[in-house]
Specification:
Length: 603
């Protein structure tokens, strides 16, 4: 008998159940036995060590239930709930992280079951906590998702079917939540997915009535600008920022902030403005911005700006494509911000320009200079002088490297830490080199701390360096840790083979890294002393890397945080068991996990 047309998306339960067991036990299975989106979610769930045999989700006690999302969704869900009264279907609304905000269920048996698996208000059904499910996977993938029966990662959910759809704000386009319809697996059908899509769209439309008029006017101005140009476009006011794909691809977060700040400054003085702006990455853009009039004559809806990246050599207007990857010996990284910096240094070296490399300690200023030298002149000599250790023989050292027995490249680290007399000496010697050798002089770079260029005593020295390139801090290109961590581990393995698991790398990428790459190296060196081969797991990392830092902790809070992290590790991530080991209540450990931003350790 042909399957019923009412359930076209329902999988083969028996076959799928066998495939799921094989996946969980690391047995071989045919990939076409499970949908591609579900298999990808299973792998993510496995990487985060989501328990497959029980439900253990975090509880968020303090929720704001007076939000535009809830106000817009309430009448939509109420109307649908009235139509489905008595039916075994649950209507669920969540925030953008998967925390359940409201739940309405028309069947008492289904309601009791959902309570038993904590699919109730206050608990998070994010994929990293529950694994594959309609809510978390829809939010993770950013698209409508249905998960039926054994497609769920956790076995406690395998008798359910759910269809989740992300809800995008109609003006900003940001995902602000999700709507999910859940029923018993045996009752699932294609109509569940269609109904979830329709409900999400109705909520999105209802959000328009809860958006203030300023946002609507600004949105219209943003769309008009996007239609006129394919370049960078941003729109902003005190409450919202919108940007097109070009802005996301060509500009890092720091550069976006620079443009928005400059545009706000210009528009505070005039209705329209044009300016050339230097970006944090070292590039420049031509900025065109205009003020957007609000609904009333005396009201301003915000501002819209468009920008064109300028050529680094002659600053002629023209859209610049993202920097292509380039090979620098000993240097890794492919984030746009990092590549732009590396290309700027390489181009400066190619022209023979002496460069000042500004940036926070540990960002890799000297490493970049060395990599460019090896790329341009692999057989040449490179020497480094550290101005921090400048003493009585400082002038002789500089003269030897540049005049007596000149090297091909000289890197002078921490030049801004020189005393005034030593700065004058350095400027004098460099001036002699330029006069004597001209374009054939050695390539010289100096490294500076941020903001030091404004110091008056450095003016004489900096006149010899036509350009400053800012090296971005690690937190601005954290995606490069996927390349940087393996490189550093290869230097620390001492003959062994040491790798980093995806779960541990995920924790490292969430850290702030105030000490930049130098701090990362110290952390990995500390880990490598305990684990010399194999794969680094989250439990190998120091406790502070299991948290998302929200504020500085005092000594007592640090001890408490570390104790909770270790307790969770000892309990294999089970919060109830960890609370018992620590002698605190389950409610307390949930609250502390949220307060300290602790990421549940994986085993």
């Amino acid at each position: 008998m042909a399957p019923s047309p009412r359930v076209p998306v329902r999988p083969d339960d028996e076959r799928l159940a066998r495939t799921r067991v094989k996946f969980l036990t690391s047995e071989a299975f045919e990939a076409d036995q499970v949908r591609e989106a579900i298999l990808a979610s299973w792998w993510r769930s496995k990487e985060f060590r989501v328990p497959a045999d029980h439900i253990d989700v975090p509880y968020v006690a303090a929720q704001d239930l007076d939000t535009p999302l809830i106000r817009a969704a309430a009448p939509v869900l109420e109307r649908l709930g009235d139509q489905l009264e008595g039916q075994p279907i649950s209507l669920i609304l969540t925030d953008q992280t998967g925390v359940v905000l409201t739940q309405r269920t028309g069947d008492s048996d289904l309601r009791r079951h959902l309570e038993s698996v904590e699919l109730v208000p206050g608990f998070s059904y994010g994929e990293r906590f529950v694994g594959t499910n309609g809510i978390g996977t829809a939010l993770e993938d950013g698209r409508p998702t249905h998960v039926f029966g054994h497609e769920h990662y956790a076995e406690n959910l395998e008798n359910l079917a759910c269809a989740g759809v992300p809800i995008q704000h109609p003006i900003s386009g940001r995902t602000i939540g999700a709507v999910d319809l859940t029923c018993w697996r045996k009752d699932a059908g294609g109509l569940l997915v269609a109904l979830a899509r329709t409900t999400a769209e109705q909520i999105r439309q209802a959000l328009l009535t809860h958006s203030n008029l300023r946002e609507l006017v600004l949105f219209q101005a943003y769309l008009q600008t996007c239609r006129r140009t394919t370049g960078v476009v941003l729109a902003f006011n005190d409450d919202v920022v919108m940007m097109n794909d070009s802005a996301r691809q060509l500009l890092g977060p720091a550069d976006q902030s620079v443009l928005l700040g400059r545009a706000a400054q210009e528009l505070a003085q005039a209705r329209r403005a044009t300016a050339t702006v230097s970006l944090s990455s070292g590039g420049k853009v031509k900025l065109y911005c205009r003020r957007v009039q609000g609904h009333r004559e005396d009201d301003t809806a915000g501002g819209v700006l468009s920008a064109k990246l300028l050529d680094a050599d002659d600053e002629r207007a023209g859209v610049q494509l993202p920097m292509p990857p380039m090979f620098l010996p000993g240097v890794v990284g492919s984030a746009p911000l990092w590549l732009r910096c590396a290309n700027d240094i390489d181009a400066g070296c190619g022209r023979g320009d002496w460069l000042a490399l500004a940036g926070e300690p540990g960002t890799g200023r000297t490493t970049l200079a060395r990599g460019v030298h090896l790329r341009r002149n692999p057989t040449g000599r490179l020497h480094t002088l550290d101005a921090t250790h400048a003493g009585p023989g400082w002038e002789e050292d500089v003269r030897r490297e540049l005049l007596d027995d000149p090297v091909d490249t000289l890197v002078i680290r921490h030049a801004d830490r020189l005393a005034a007399a030593d700065l004058d000496t350095l400027a004098t010697v460099l001036g002699e080199v330029r006069t004597r050798d001209g374009a054939g002089a050695p390539w010289v770079t100096i490294t500076l701390d941020p903001e030091s260029e404004s110091r008056p005593e450095l003016a004489g020295l900096l006149r010899l360096f036509p350009r400053t390139v800012t090296v971005p801090p690690l937190r601005r290109h954290a995606e490069d840790l996927s390349e940087l961590v393996p490189l550093l581990l290869s230097r620390l393995a001492h003959g062994g083979h040491l790798t980093c698991s995806p779960a541990a790398l995920h924790l490292l990428m969430r850290a702030d890294w105030p000490g930049n790459t130098a701090q990362l190296y110290r952390v990995l060196k500390q880990v490598a002393k305990r684990r010399r081969t194999g794969s680094i797991q989250p439990s190998d990392l120091p406790a502070e890397y299991h948290t998302i830092t929200r504020r500085p902790l005092n000594r007592f809070e640090t001890v408490e945080r570390d104790a909770i992290v270790r307790g969770l590790e000892d309990a294999d991530g089970n919060k109830a068991r960890a609370a018992k080991l620590l002698g605190i209540s389950r409610a307390t450990i949930y609250r502390k996990i949220h307060e300290y931003g602790i990421v549940i350790p994986d085993r």
